[in-house]
Amino acid sequence: SQTIHQWPATLVQPVGSPLSLECTVEGTSNPNLYWYRQAAGRGLQLLFYSVGIGQISSEVPQNLSASRPQDRQFILSSKKLLLSDSGFYLCAWSRGGRTYEQYFGPGTRLTVT
Amino acid sequence: GESVGLHLPTLSVQEGDNSIINCAYSNSASDYFIWYKQESGKGPQFIIDIRSNMDKRLGQRVTVLLNKTVKHLSLQIAATQPGDSAVYFCAENSYNFNKFYFGSGTKLNVKP
């Protein structure tokens, strides 16, 4: 069976510090990978998605970036965090091709102070 | 981008009653819809999906209805249980299978 992991589960970082959130998927190959951000009491905003190693599509302009160094690894980064980067970050995967269902990880709660 | 929203931000129901959560979408070209359940502090969990060539789909204790004429989606939960308490999101996909647009969510409170 497939599983998706995210870490850390919670993170408190000062403004201006760097960020690295990691997501890995097990039990599948060539997945599509996604990063979402969820503000408190709000829906999910798609930040990045990737259909393969080194292939990243950005949905919204921001000071965040994403990388996919391995097939089942997806990293969300920032060089300098802003207060507005606080939120709940969710990684998701779906099978490649025209299948739609996305499976979400447990999320990372980021608080920028 | 596409607009997906929910009519009721909070819904309180009595245990054992049926629940109906509604969702409106704006893009008539959307061809796939999913309902997700999100418990506090956790990632969304897939509940049920429906494609635009259907108007109803049944799951385990849940039914999704799609009215393309008015661009409306609903999730019906039968015999609501305390474990159903969560935030429910609808999401739509328009041809591009990589992109889903999520509504803001409805919080379901189940009273014992």
Care to give the gist of this entry?
By secondary structure, chain A is mostly beta strands.
CATH class value of chain B: Mainly Beta
List the chains of the largest interface with their residue counts.
A-B, 26 and 23 residues
Largest beta sheet of chain A, briefly? 7 strands, mixed
| Helical segment count of chain B | 0
Number of self-contained structural domains of chain B = 1
Written as H for each helix and E for each strand, in order along the chain, the element string of chain A is: EEEEEEEEEEE
Give the second-level CATH assignment, the architecture of chain B: Sandwich
Question: Averaged pLDDT of chain B, please?
Answer: 88
- The SSE order of chain B reads EEEEEEEEEEE
Percentage beta strand of chain A? over 45%
Distance between the termini of chain A: 38 Å
- Named CATH topology of chain A: Immunoglobulin-like
CATH class of chain A: Mainly Beta
Give your account of this protein's structure:
- The complex is a heterodimer of chains A (113) and B (112).
- Chain A is built from no helices and 11 strands.
- Chain A has 113 residues and is mainly β.
- Chain A has a single domain, classed as Immunoglobulin-like (Sandwich), CATH 2.60.40.
- In chain A, strand 7 and strand 8 form a beta hairpin.
- Chain A starts with a strand and ends with a strand.
- By secondary structure, chain B is an all-beta fold.
- Chain B has one domain: Immunoglobulin-like (Sandwich).
- Chain B is 0% helix and 54% strand.
- In chain B, the strands form 2 sheets. In chain B, strands 2, 4, 5, 9, 10 and 11 form a 6-stranded mixed beta sheet that branches. In chain B, strands 1-3-8-7-6 form a 5-stranded antiparallel beta sheet, with no helix packed on it.
- In chain B, strand 4 and strand 5 (45-51) form a beta hairpin.
- The relative contact order of chain B is 0.34.
- The interface between A and B is medium-sized, with 26 and 23 residues.
